[in-house]
Amino acid sequence: MSRINRKVEYSLMALQFISEKPLGQLASAKEVAEITGSPFDATARVMQILAQKGILKSEQGSRGGYLLVRDLATVSYHELMECILGPTAIVKCINDKHACEIDATCRIKAPLFKLNDRLVSFYKGISIKELLDTESSVPKSGESNSKIAQELR
Description:
Arc Repressor Mutant, subunit A, about 5% strand
């Protein structure tokens, strides 16, 4: 089972929190960490990365913090993952041709590359706004998770 990396989770928490603040109001890494319950150091680091990548803007100073500068509808889950983790690769040989000792005899490389491409396409098709939209992503009373899963297909 593939799991979402904690750093990506902290990024999503930070983006959700910042996106819900009134326009122009800054959010500090400390505030985000306290409100979301995420560790301060990891939260501060992912927020710095998001600022370096142009999703957030960092304001320095005693009253500094972060602002959202990109519409989350234009940021894909794939872009966020690559900002935080680097290129998407379900196996090492996708990004490092010399990472596997059985590379010369491997018969599953092509299918795994195909799977990786499909995952990338899927991740590119999900915006952060869509992902964080709690109105449509949380099952309502009596609604099963399988219905939500069908919508994702």
